[in-house]
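queue> holo job accepted (adenosine-5'-triphosphate)
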Amino acid sequence: MPPTAAHRVELDASGVSVAYQRTRVVHDVSVQLHAGRVTALIGPNGSGKSTLLRAFTRLHPPESGHVTLRDAEPVSALSPRNLARRLTLLSQNRQAPGGVTVREVVEYGRHPHRGRWGGGDADGAAVVDRVMTLTGVAPLAERAVDTLSGGQLQRVWLASCLAQDTRVLLLDEPTTFLDLRYQVELLDIVRDLADDHGIAVGVVLHDLDQAAALADEVVLLVAGRVHAYGPVDEVLTADHLTTAYEIPVDVDRDPHTGHLRTRARARHHHRTLTGDPR
Ligand SMILES: Nc1ncnc2c1ncn2[C@@H]1O[C@H](COP(=O)(O)OP(=O)(O)OP(=O)(O)O)[C@@H](O)[C@H]1O
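queue> job finished
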């Protein structure tokens, strides 16, 4: 179902273009993230997904276009502290700091809610405990983060983002490094945050079936431009995906879940079917 008036716009990106040095890699992209909705950003490697998320947070300010939050507040005008109260980004390849515990990293997520001298965050301890339990990192609380596995660390970063308690949650390939169980659990957590807490989620995913199962809307980027944008069924079509990924993609519906299912056709399928021994 398309977003309704009940789904307020939490982040509105309009005509956003982004460049590295002089090379423009995102071209005139307009996307809205709505309260209680999950928007998946998909597209081939290098199509601009991460760059776009970074532009939303002004880590990489757009060269043109506008990014505004609820009530038309421009992201560019907010103080770092106010911005950190409004949106958070779980980015790829964060480096684990040395000599810091899991609990300290998660507590760091509360920084925009603390007063100048570190006090004034009455809910902080409860929020930190809650998000550590939610993400399954509570048993690791006193471990040094630089001793964790990739998947454990990814969940700590997620907990730290959730501790920020923002209306907009941006996730860049959050299932990377996670084993099967935690991939499913993370996607469940994200869906619950949208459904139960009205969070607006923008998430970069490479797994198209995960996007189909999780998202309400999908943005398909190709070479920095929006190739298709809309409800899952309208974007995850064989035509769009075959054009975007330049490989034949079949789409059908999982009879058990009702979600769309995608399958890229490899050349060896053809050889197997035709009995070609090469
Ligand atoms: N720091 C940088 N300096 C110069 N060019 C960059 C930089 N970071 C990314 N790019 C280029 O910008 C384009 C978009 O990259 P981006 O990382 O946003 O794509 P992506 O869709 O997230 O890719 P992937 O799926 O591989 O993570 C690519 O051509 C990339 O090479």
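queue> The chain is about 35% helix and 25% strand.
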